[in-house]
């Protein structure tokens, strides 16, 4: 998986919100954990830059918040946590793929990941890779967009 760092830092900077607020992160290397009791939708609503954000921006921010809420203090996901997120938060994209060679390859690659943890960029690549091979995406493509 890719080891680039710029996208993780750019996303973390964008998600900080108003830096004048108490408790705003001072480093993008150790993301601040919001209490688990605060829903992702409330966390998303608290990001000032997204108040007029597009659906796409909010979708990516939601992924970033779910990742951050599940990551360790170093901002990385363990393999077991990543697999759990796939099963609980991404199941509509993973259902029915268990026997497909490409899906098996992706999970095998996750198991063989040398660091035993995924950073945000690696997690995004995994999500996108699963998405493009999913049956759900094929169903989405077939949805009528015009009356």
From TrEMBL:
<feature type="region of interest" description="Disordered">
    <location>
        <begin position="1"/>
        <end position="35"/>
    </location>
</feature>
<dbReference type="InterPro" id="IPR013787">
    <property type="entry name" value="S100_Ca-bd_sub"/>
</dbReference>
<dbReference type="GO" id="GO:0005929">
    <property type="term" value="C:cilium"/>
</dbReference>
<feature type="domain" description="EH">
    <location>
        <begin position="99"/>
        <end position="147"/>
    </location>
</feature>
<dbReference type="InterPro" id="IPR034325">
    <property type="entry name" value="S-100_dom"/>
</dbReference>
<dbReference type="GO" id="GO:0048306">
    <property type="term" value="F:calcium-dependent protein binding"/>
</dbReference>
<dbReference type="GO" id="GO:0005509">
    <property type="term" value="F:calcium ion binding"/>
</dbReference>
<feature type="compositionally biased region" description="Polar residues">
    <location>
        <begin position="1"/>
        <end position="11"/>
    </location>
</feature>
<protein>
    <submittedName>
        <fullName>Sentan, cilia apical structure protein</fullName>
    </submittedName>
</protein>
<dbReference type="GO" id="GO:0046914">
    <property type="term" value="F:transition metal ion binding"/>
</dbReference>
<dbReference type="InterPro" id="IPR000261">
    <property type="entry name" value="EH_dom"/>
</dbReference>
<dbReference type="InterPro" id="IPR011992">
    <property type="entry name" value="EF-hand-dom_pair"/>
</dbReference>
């Amino acid at each position: 998986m890719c080891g680039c760092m710029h996208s993780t830092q750019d996303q973390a900077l964008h998600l900080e919100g108003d830096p004048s607020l108490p408790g705003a992160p001072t480093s993008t290397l150790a993301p601040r954990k919001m209490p688990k009791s605060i829903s992702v939708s409330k966390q998303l609503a608290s990001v000032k830059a997204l108040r007029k954000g597009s659906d796409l921006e909010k979708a990516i921010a939601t992924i970033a918040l779910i990742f951050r809420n599940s990551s360790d203090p170093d901002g990385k996901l363990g393999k077991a946590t990543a697999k759990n997120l796939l099963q609980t938060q991404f199941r509509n994209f993973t259902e029915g793929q268990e026997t497909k060679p490409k899906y098996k390859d992706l999970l095998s690659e996750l198991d063989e990941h040398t660091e035993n943890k995924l950073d945000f960029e690696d997690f995004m690549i995994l999500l996108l890779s699963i998405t493009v091979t999913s049956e759900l995406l094929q169903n989405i493509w077939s949805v009528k967009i015009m009356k």
